[in-house]
Structure formats: structure tokens, C-alpha cells
Amino acid sequence: MTTTASGTTASHGKKDALTCDALTVLQPGFTGTTAPDWLLRRLGEGLASVGLFGRNIASSEQLAALTAQLRAEREDVLVAIDEEGGDVTRLEVRTGSSFPGNHALGAVDDVELTRAVAHELGRRLAECGVNLNWAPSADVNSNPDNPVIGVRSFGASTELAARHTAAYVTGLQSAGVAACTKHFPGHGDTAVDSHHAVPRIDVDTDVLQARELAPFRAAIAAGTKAVMSAHILVPALDPDRPGTLSHRVLTELLRGEMGYDGLIVTDGMEMRAIADTYGIERGSVLAIAAGADAICVGGGLADEGIVRSLRDALVAAVRSGELPEERLADAAERVRALARWTTTAATAARSAADPEVGLRAARRALRVTVTESFTPLTEPPYVAALTPVANIAVGDETPWGVAAELFRLLPGTETGSFTGDDAGRAVLEAAGARRVVAVVRDEHRHPWMAAALDVLLKDRPDTIVVEMGVPQATPRGALHLATHGAARVCGRAAAEVIAGA
């Protein structure tokens, strides 16, 4: 079966255009490291996008083979991935990322470095056949208690977030990979994770314009090919519906007032902010009607049944008159237009690899505070990871910390993971006479973590503290290292200082 330039199959006539369009706007996931038969069949019927997650990736070679398998069925398929670098990595889900995340890049505040990091990340994605990245996060982390953005943001400064968002978009797309700037209209000032419920931002339109929207304007000016909507309620814009389902947010604001003409992708529709309030099928219809062009689904739902049910829901909505057929057709054409861009961009973008750019950035992002006289360690320490519950965007399958890198420099290093009210005493018992390196993640958000450090530092004032989240708490310990993220390269940069490498 062949695919025409418009994205419909040659064996499908005009009567099937509606069904084809309904498939075209979906971005589903799947399980396994090879494409299942149902997915290949749907690509032949009009499906134009596929979303990849950590469960789909075993190695770069395997990923390249997988994307080649998809393109054998549809040459212009959009292969999307949630690869932010830093804490949120799918390409290196089992090892930790070779790239620091946004917060580290913001801490350095060198837009050329951000552009170079994004370009190298994009080059590696393109080399594996991935052509759409659900990144960067343009959210301004104005609420330090935010449970889901944090180090995924460039920082709490609007101006900083705007210039680095633009640099990231430019760097990624110069490698032939479309950027998808998220989470519109801005997820930074929330205290709820939209994976679990509907967050709410109660600020007036002047604040939104000056703070939340500025990085998205910068991304649009930089030519971002896609924007991802957020499942957040912003009453100043729409008191009734979250951004993903709001005509006011997506069509009137993003398209009309901000002049954006690229692809609008929803955040995962299986997230509870949508699934528990509207339902996935109903939510998808409302999202397309509101102005979204592509329905992201598959982070937690990954089978043929969900694709079929969403396709059928969209077709039924058109036939009932709830969803205008021309709106669905317009959305499908925007998906195909981006697919066409990726085929030309991939051949135009060829550049030399820069494998050390991520490590260079991580080293520059490191903030070192010596509160007592510190001498680099020469004996293997005990690394105590004070481990909070990982948010769903990050996941708990990606290793983090400094233990592996310290073991490489100081063989014999031991480690353990601790949580809860007795964590401090448990660390002291496990460490024995060894020097303690306490690794924390967002100490300021976790009272039990701060209490554990209190216990450790009272008994062992020579404890070294490594903060791998947002460094909001006051530095303490004989040596305090703020890495601004928990990527593997951030751990390496910290280990080098601890061991004097």
C-alpha cells in the first residue's frame, strides 16, 4: 500500500477522507521495541504520527531500526519523543542523560551553549530517526513548590526563560528535529501536577502576558514548529475549561493574538486532569474543536483499542455536527505540513558531533559552596540518596545521583537510598565510619529531607551535600554542590569536585 503526498492512501477514496483525517491527528504510543502489526496497519490507513517513550528504547541502534521499520510503511511519519535532556530522558532512560536539563542551562545563562546542547541532542535524535521532540519546556518556574516543572524550567526569571527557550528551539531545529515548546500557556506557577488533577493559575491577564506568555512569544519568533498545550485552568483566560480544551486559549490567544501558525499538540490526554474530568474520547473531541491539531496519547495507554476509540469519537463528532469537518481537516493538514518539513529538514541538516558539550555544560552549571575547609576525598565514601517520590514526567526508572560516578573515581564507594522521618538516623547507621555524601532533590519541598540533613550534620558536620533539584534551600554541609538537575553528567560534574578530579 502506498502513501500519497497528501497523506491519504491510494486505496482510499473521498468517502474515507474523514476517517483518514481522524487517524492523522492522533499521536499514539505502543509497547515494545519493535512496531506492532496494528500500528503498521494504521500507518497505512492514515495515521501520521507515533510517540516513543522509554519502554520503546533499548539502544540507539535498536531505535534507528524501529524508526526505519515505521518509515518503511510511511516515509513521512512523524516520530515524536519526550526528550528534554536532564531529568526527563527517554533516549538514555536506563543510564541517565548525557545532557543537563533546562535549569542547569539557565544557571549558566549562555545562550550559545544552550543552542549547542539542543543542537547536539537534536543531532542524536535525528541520527536515530526521531524528527519531533516534545521539548523545550518554556515554563517560568515562578512557584518554587511546583511539583512537576522544577528543574525542567530554565528558571524563575521570565527574560532568562524566554531567551533560552528561543535558543533551544533554534538549536534543536537546526539539527532537523521539530521543537514542540510546552506547556502553553505556562505550567510554572502551579502547585498541582496535571498528571494527577487539574492545576489552576489565579493571576490576572497582565501577569500572564508579562510572565507566562513571554517565553512562548520568543519561541514563536524563533520559529518553533509545534506548541504543546497544558491541562491547566487559567480563569483569567477561560474560567470553565483547561487550556487544552479552550477555544479562547488555543484559537483566540495562541493563534489569533500571538500569531502562531504551526502545529498545536496536546499534552497526554490520558493524564488525569483530562481523563478523570472529561474522559479521553470526549476530551479529544473538545481539544480538536478548541484548536488543537494533534492528540498526544500513549504515555500510559498504548494499544490499538485507544486509537480506534479516539478515531471513532472524532468521526462521530463530525457526523453529529459537534466538530466541524473543516476543523478536523485543517488539523490533519497541519500534521501533514509538519511531516513534509521534517523530510526536507532531515536531509538539509548535517553537522559534526559534539559528544562532550553536555558534560561541559554540566560542569559550568555546578555551584560550589564551601562552608568549612574542604579537602577532596581520597577514600571511598558512603553516598546516601535521600530519595523523594519521582513525578510521573521524570519517572523512577532513570538512575540519578553521584554514586556511580564516585565509584568510578573512588572504587569501593557504597550507596543506599533513604526516605521518611528516620532517614537521617538510618544513614548514620549504614555509613558507619565512612565519610557521608548526602544527595538530595528539592530539599526545600520535603520537610523529612531537611530533617534528615539536620540529623546528619549534627552528628557528622563533615557531611558533603549535593542538591540535584532546584537549589532553593540554604547551602549547608562541609561542601555544598548545586548541580541544577539530576542528569548523569550533572552527577559526574559533582563527583569530579568531590574527588578532586
TrEMBL record:
GO molecular function annotation: hydrolase activity, hydrolyzing O-glycosyl compounds
Pfam families assigned to the protein according to its UniProt record, in alphabetical order: Glyco_hydro_3 (PF00933)
Residue ranges of every copy of the Glycoside hydrolase family 3 N-terminal domain listed in the record: 46-336
GO biological process annotation, one example: carbohydrate metabolic process
Keywords noted in UniProt: Glycosidase, Hydrolase
Coiled coil: none
Protein family according to the UniProt entry: Belongs to the glycosyl hydrolase 3 family.
Name of this protein: Sugar hydrolase
Organism: Streptomyces spiralis
